[in-house]
Amino acid sequence: MEIFYYLVFGSLAAVVAAIELTKNNKDRINTPSVFNSFKNNYLLVYSLMMAGDWLQGPYVYYLYSTYGFGKGDIGQLFIAGFGSSMLFGTIVGSLADKQGRKRACVTYCITYILSCITKHSPLYKVLMLGRILGGIATSLLFSAFESWLVAEHNKRGFEQQWLSVTFSKAIFLGNGLVAILAGLFGNLLVDTFGFGPVAPFDAAACLLAIGMAVILSSWTENYGDPSENKDLLSQFKGAAVAIASDEKIALLGAIQSLFEGSMYTFVFLWTPALSPNDEEIPHGFIFATFMLASMLGSSIASRLLSRSSPRVESYMQVVFSISAASLLLPIVTNFLVEPSKVKGDGISFSGCIQVLGFCAFEACVGIFWPSIMKMRSQYIPEEARSTIMNFFRIPLNIFVCIVLYNVNAFPITIMFGMCSIFLFVACILQRRLMVISEKPKTQSYGLKERDSESEPLSI
């Protein structure tokens, strides 16, 4: 079955290359050199930040196990990380709006470097501290950098459409190419050079330090609401009011939580799904294949976002539908394909089908990230951007903690079925978001039509 892995990887690589090489003027947005310089600076920093994150991912569980901790203890460490992201991360991330987004990005680097340093200790309490620090850093990674980018982009007077260029490139590089290279580099450090499972964490700390130096030397500070009389509780109240009073923001938060909750659950489930009888599967190569599929998705998103039609609110319905169907495959194959009873063998036929479905899901993930970033830039108010984005992560972290705590309580097919239902609900909510987002534009268009001297409104 080894040829199967190479065929899937090669096919995805060929499609990604074809999409990138066949882009025409309609698929590209012409931008001036001053914007390109700004964009490339952000992409460099974002790629370094994501490299620091991706280097650690494959070795966290493995490192804990080499220190002699069992599945239960390791599960508690993971829950602590997500719980920290929900509690402390929400507070620290929200401070970015008041204290400054650049400062929050530097805080991310420092916090994650400290988290990496704790990995050198086999003491459980020290490792727990590292997970808490890592949870705080994760909240900052997925809020502060995007908030800084959107505010700085607008402050410099760049066109709104150009944001989609930066978003799609950031995902293509940071969540695709960098993830693949980080996985290969980590494998080189641990297996080829024999530096041990802590080596990727040291490499991650070095990359984070380089990224922090770039931020300190080239980024300017920006704020959401820097008013002196507004404390943290007032920020939270303002963000809650914004979510409760604007259905579009509430829908966006629900959609994000449903999709990302399913995505993080998938991260825990794909390995046991492909090797239910301890089949020998190349985890690193499959991970690289998934990241290549994500690159394919970001390439597709780049084309979609460069055009005025279809709108992001429209095509994301299709994306959620496909992702829901792809995570149903483990259930379908469980009923239709007789499971292999040979332990320790290569991947089964049903496993091959699931790999293809999981690649489709990862392609949807690649489309999701730049598209949700685009919608957040449109609907979330600037003065509370980081606070609201961290509010969105609260139900996500609660959901992941519940899944982690009960991961052995339900059959894997039930877990996949639950994720598929969540994605289908996200599709319905996306449909609602599209409907209500069109109403103001339709009304404005009608007003413009009645004014013969006005310019036509571009929709």
What does this structure look like?
The protein is mainly α. It is 78% helix and 0% strand. The chain has 17 helices and no strands. 47% of the residues are buried. The C terminus is likely disordered.
**What is the tally of beta strands?**
0
Low-confidence stretches: 441-459
For the sheet with most strands, the description reads:
none
Query: Which structural class do you get from the secondary structure elements?
Result: mainly alpha
Distance linking N and C termini? 50 Å
Overall mean confidence score, pLDDT: 86
Our Rg estimate from Cα atoms comes to 22 Å
Helix content: over 70%
Shape: globular
Percentage beta strand: under 5%
By DSSP (H or I, 4+ residues per run), the number of helices equals 17
Strand and helix order = HHHHHHHHHHHHHHHHH
What can be said about this structure in brief?
The chain has about 450 residues and is mainly α. The protein has 17 helices and no strands.
State the main characteristics.
0% strand, disordered C terminus, 459 residues, 78% helix, mainly alpha
Give the SSE layout.
Layout: H1 2-21, H2 33-56, H3 60-66, H4 71-99, H5 101-118, H6 124-141, H7 144-155, H8 162-192, H9 199-218, H10 232-245, H11 247-274, H12 283-305, H13 312-326, H14 329-336, H15 349-379, H16 385-405, H17 412-450
